[in-house]
Amino acid sequence: MRLSVVIPAYNTARYIAEAIGSVLAQIDPDTEVIVVDDGSNDDTAAIAERFGPPVRVIRAAHGGIGATVNRGMAEARGARIAAIDADDRWLPGKTALQLAALDGDPSLDAVFGHVRQFLSPDVTEPARFAIPAEPMPGLIRGAMIVRREAWERVGPIETGLAAGEFISWYARAVDAGLRTRMLPDLVYERRVHGNNTATAGTHDDYLRVVKATMDRRRARLRQAAAGETPAE
User: Fold this and answer.
1) 93-119 tens-digit pLDDT
2) Could you tell me the sign of the dihedral formed by the alpha carbons of 213, 214, 217, 223, in that order?
3) What is the pLDDT of residues 34-67, one digit of tens each?
4) What are the E-state strand segments in the chain?
5) CA-CA distance, 40 to 197, in Å (whole number)?
6) Pairing between strand 136-137 and 110-119?
7) Which of 39, 69, 101, 165 has CA 20 to 30 A from 146's CA?
8) Whole-number pLDDT of residue 41
9) CATH of the structural domain 3-202, one choice from 3.40.50.720, 3.40.640.10, 3.30.930.10, 3.90.550.10
């Protein structure tokens, strides 16, 4: 199988059909879509199940974003893996552009693209949110396609974080020497609606990620100075 697309979902009944539709509009038959419902108490899973193949729905107990992504990645069978949050949208051409980049350069481990944020139409107090006017480089899970072996080399997403889980994974990917490319193309739209994971997360989560990254790099430097082989 060429590509697996993982969609972690928690109480996103209002948005998940649009997210899945944005994926199905551009994938080829050699693709699977895995929706992992994180113990939602709304109709998220039922809406996803109505799509039928190639969408497969896994209903799991609530475990948080890290555990949900990891479950989807463990189920994925594709040689390349992508993801989209259940409240966001892929833009047309995303997979074609990123898969072409990976096909054209076997040394690349992962490809990212640019991201545009948009205010969800159901937001009742839009003045609360400042939305960047221009697209930005998207070092986020949803803007990436990664080779399966590269994902497995870095290891699973850290669990126990309400926010910053992909920042943690990406820092480990950098430390592991993954070779990545940022395409100039706009590939992803991130919905802003007030209940986003990053919005709901705490500053403590981000500080924890930064501290763990710094500690890991200091340990590698000490090992290198001592002539030891750094731990992976």
Assistant:
1) 999 999 999 999 999 999 999 999 999
2) negative
3) 999 999 999 999 999 999 999 999 999 999 999 9
4) 3-9, 31-38, 55-60, 80-83, 89-90, 110-119, 136-137, 144-147, 180-192
5) 15
6) antiparallel
7) 39
8) 97
9) 3.90.550.10
